[in-house]
Amino acid sequence: MGRSQETYNKKEVKNKKDKKRKEKEEKRLARRDAPKMNSFDDMIAYVDENGMISSTPPDESKKMKIELQNIEISVPKSENIPVDLTRKGKVSYYNSSKGYGFIRDSDTHESIFVFVKNALDPIEEGNLVSYEMGKGPKGPIAMNVKLIR
Description:
Helix content: 10-25%
Distance between the termini: 104 Å
Strand content: 25-35%
């Protein structure tokens, strides 16, 4: 009598598939026999005052009346704020052979990229400079960089 052609691994795979097939069939039958919930009230969800989803409608006593004129869609315009385009800072790093460096802003302590083409005076590491902020391809850059005497 010959040995069975099914190995242990093949038997395990077959048993797992059979088990999964039976579970799937049981779920299908359970869904079929379950009561149907097709009403709109069963499907609706509410959002409470904290932004959480709930199945109960919100309390009408907590409802606030908002006037249409009080809703601001855009950013409120700032009035009477002087805009100083020139800023001051210290050159924290400068590579003269490659022609670029970074300026540490004296107010925000932010590092701003500076390129040799944007410097009106020759700059070195440690110099106090004034500059204008500009927008570069990778972020803010310093433009019109001048030494503070």
